[in-house]
Structures are given as structure tokens and as C-alpha cells.
Design brief:
Helix content is about 45%, strand content about 0%. The protein is built from two helices and no strands.
Length: about 120
């Protein structure tokens, strides 16, 4: 899906192929298609934050007498910043999977070409 394999090559980590190299599926179905990934990324971030909160609560616990809650908040913030490139790519893959069905016969059948307003990608 992406031109660069690593999520942490920060200059090129979001560059995508115009078509899938294996099956020929267009990656951008319409102009502005990936704007919706912000909702998926938000859901992933909230789920990860809830999971780390529960894990912290079970393993370490929260208390009003010390600053364990604020330490969790700082740890969670650092974790989210470090995982952001990966989460952005994952949200694009999930968003695309909402709109493009898997075709078991993809080797024999070409994908539908999307209607585009701009010029065809090369």
C-alpha cells in the first residue's frame, strides 16, 4: 500500500502507491478519500488510551495521594506520539478496507476503476 516499508521514515512514511502493485486496485478512490481516516485514527487512539489506562490501573493502580495518574497521562502521551506514524498508516488501511471488498478471485478479475474528477494517476 505504501511506497516506503517503514512507518518511521518520517519524510516519506505517508506516500502511497497510485495502484496496488499486486492486483491493480486504485488506492485513492476519489479526491480527498483519506480525510475520513481521522475518525479511524481517533478511535484507535481512544482505544489505546483506554487500554493503557486499564492496564495501569490493574498493574500499578491510581491514588489521590500521589501523582500516579499524572505519570500515566505522561506515559500515555509519549506512547501515543511514538505510535502516531504507525497509527496513521493503520487507519488508512482500515479506512480503505471499509470501501474496497476483498475479491478472492483478484488474479483473474480486474478491480473497478473509480470515477475521478482529476486526471488519471500514472
Amino acid at each position: 500500500m505504501f511506497k516506503v516499508r517503514s512507518s518511521y521514515n518520517l519524510k516519506q512514511f505517508m506516500k502511497m502507491n497510485d495502484k496496488c502493485p499486486a492486483c491493480g486496485q486504485y488506492m485513492e478512490i476519489e479526491v480527498g478519500f483519506y480525510y475520513g481516516t481521522s475518525y479511524v485514527s481517533y478511535a484507535l487512539t481512544v482505544a489505546l488510551s483506554v487500554a493503557t489506562c486499564i492496564a495501569w490501573w490493574v498493574l500499578i493502580g491510581f491514588s489521590l495521594e500521589d501523582s500516579r495518574f499524572f505519570i500515566w497521562m505522561g506515559t500515555n502521551m509519549v506512547l501515543l506520539v511514538l505510535l502516531q506514524p504507525y497509527l496513521m498508516r493503520l487507519s488508512r488501511a482500515i479506512w480503505l478496507s471499509f470501501f474496497v471488498r476483498y475479491n478472492e478471485n483478484w488474479r483473474n478479475e480486474k478491480p473497478e476503476s473509480p470515477e475521478r474528477r482529476g486526471s488519471e494517476p500514472t
